[in-house]
Amino acid sequence: MTPMKNKQRGGAQSLLGIIIKVGLAGTYMFGIWVMFFAEEREALYQLLQSAQEASHQQSLFVLRDNILEISAEQVWRDLLEEGASQSPIPGIVMEVGMHRAIQCMNAAKAGFHAHCVEPSPNSFQRVQNAVLKAPADVQERIHLYQVAASSSSEGTVPFTSSGGTGDHVGGHDMWAMEEKQQENDPKAQVIQVPTKKLDDIVIPNEKAFLLKVDTQGFEPTVFSGLTESLAQHKIQYVLTEFWPRGMDLLAGRPNECIGAQLLETFLKYGYTLYAMPVAAHPLAPRGWTSIVPQRPLHNVQAFCEWYFYVERAFPSKDYKMGYWSDILAVAPGATLPSPKTQTGKALTGKATL
């Protein structure tokens, strides 16, 4: 071994010793820093948790999830009970798209003046017959309209009528989701029915406690005739079907998701929106319910387009109707002083679903 190699070796050993000392010192200092900032790290963790919770709450601001597990039928019943318990009765109740008289009559039985709209001749006759069998005081509180709720109180619209649950505005085939006359129902015929703005019902009665709309995709046009009432918050609770595929079909605007504009209208007037359970026809492809928890609630456009996403995720050659749900819109200042029902407690934050 030459002196030069010994020198190099000794220098390397010295350098190694310095590195080890520095490393030990660094480890020691790192330990001090970790101990010193333990409380600060915990505080930071809590801060991040709070920030995440705040972000989560903000993401639900557009469509809240308080009543995700409650059906539209139960929400209707619960809100009738909540309203009937108030004194005086807080306004009229309206049902648009009836088929049967049950819900309208329940509102009248609860003490409300019920204004109920049904354009189908066969369904309207069925409703009238049921109302005539009710007690006199209930009959006095029921007001029936054989019209199609629309953007105008003048004129008519084509209406496919058979007296079934699928009666709808227009001459479309709702099963095939095409702009052609329905083929799978031989009783269906397209007739002309008069139209009426819902503003013309609400405004003369000053205010409405509850409105339910189920018009097989015609909802955007229905609510375009209700803008004055919405702007003035004359309706406290609005329960409406939300069927993006049907709305686009009736408007002649396929795949545009115009339902998002309807939700934006409610937000524009300060209403709070609550998402509700998703539904489909029994012949829908199996498995689609597995992705319901992924439905986005932070943005109305994303919320609307999600229903189309389900169709792509579970394609079918035969099933074209798509997926739908209901939306509850609550006016600013609407209150339930002493909530008793599941819906009432959920809306007031007094129950965890």
TrEMBL record:
It comes from the Eukaryota. InterPro entries: FkbM_mtfrase, SAM-dependent_MTase, SAM-dependent_MTases_sf. Residues 96-242 form the Methyltransferase FkbM domain. The keyword Membrane applies. Gene3D superfamilies: Vaccinia Virus protein VP39. Keywords: Membrane, Transmembrane, Transmembrane helix. The chain crosses the membrane at residues 12-36. This is Methyltransferase FkbM domain-containing protein. It comes from Fistulifera solaris (Oleaginous diatom). The lineage of its organism: Eukaryota, Sar, Stramenopiles, Ochrophyta, Bacillariophyta.
